Every structure is written in C-alpha cells, then in structure tokens.
Structure prediction request, 218 residues.
Amino acid sequence: MFYDTRTGDHGLPHNPFKACVVPRPIGWVTTLNEAGTVNLAPYSFFNGVAGDPPVVMFAPGGRKADGPPDGSKDSLANAERTKEFVCNVVTWDLRDTMNLTSAPAPAGVSEAEVAELEMVPSQLVKPPRVKASPIHMECRYLQTVDLPSNASDARNAVVFGEVIGIHIDESVLTEGLIDMAKLRPIARLGYMDYCRVDEVFSIRRPDWPLKKRSAAAE
Prediction:
C-alpha cells in the first residue's frame, strides 16, 4: 500500500507512521515551572543526537489546553524558561508509573507527586531526578527548533539539550559497562504498544576495503 501523508487517507484503523519508526526510547523529562513545581512527562520522540559533546533531543508536540497562549506543553515552556531539564531512563519496573505521568494533568500539578515518585536533587541543574530510575542525564538547554504544525493553536517543536552530567546506578553495571539485561529499558512502538530490551547482540563495524564473503560463509 501507499498513502500520501498530506491527505491522511491511509484507509487503516490507525495512522501507521509511529509504528514505522521503532523502537523509540522514552525520555522521562523533568522540568521546573515558575513556582518551582516539578513537571515530569514521558516523550517517545526522544533520542541522543550527538556524542561530543553529548546532546539529546525531545519533541513535545501537541497543545497544552490550559498552558501558555502559544499552546506549548509544560516541558517545552519550562525548559525554554529555565534553560535546564533532566532525562530519566524508563525501565521495565517503572512502566506503570511512567504511564501515570503521561496523563493530561492541569498546569501546575506535579505528576511526580501524583504518581508518588520520590525525587532527588541533581548536581548541576535545578530540576530533580526520579530516584527509582537507574540513569539520569542532567541537561543544559541549547535551543528549540519549531517545525510545521497542522494545528494552528499548537507548537510542534524539538528541544535540544547538552548533557552536562550523567548519573548511573552501579546496579546496572557489569565490568564497567551498562548491562542492558540489568537495566531492562523499555521503548515505544506504534499505537499503545511498547517493548522491553531482552536480547542484545554485537556486530563489529567492518574495515575498509571490505572483504569478499566466501562461499562457505553463505
């Protein structure tokens, strides 16, 4: 099948786009509002985009009904105002709690409190960290890139932040490496589906020039 995304006429029960770009890691983003209230929200449009210096992005698209006049979601408005945020890694054990924080809470409500999550101070930024998460990335806001939006009253934006500090719980380390079998991160698939990292395999990058594969290897 083929469909023109500009028309949205795919003829399927649900838009398949998000099921085509998978799996997507979940950025559980902590920010602070003007009153110092903690905002905690998960974003599956999240990833690392650079390594030196390390940079992450999250895309808080859509509209906050009782938010700023431009429709910005709380995480976006807070990150732009304070220039700081924290990305907490979501694991299998935290899946249900993470989902609670995705509810459309009114502006000014702390999702962390509603989900009964203990927060702990960060070292280099003001937004706190989710204590139960084994990995946290403290971020300094870099910039926002506003993308085209199909909704005139909502921002479709990407927030970039430089990771200036990383906390790693030693319980997820094996011989100095982050052990995915211990970490058990989850990722978003399409629709309401998620996956868990259960199996890891390694592939070495080839040297150049490439070696021809032997018949035996076939």
In short: The chain is about 10% helix and 35% strand.
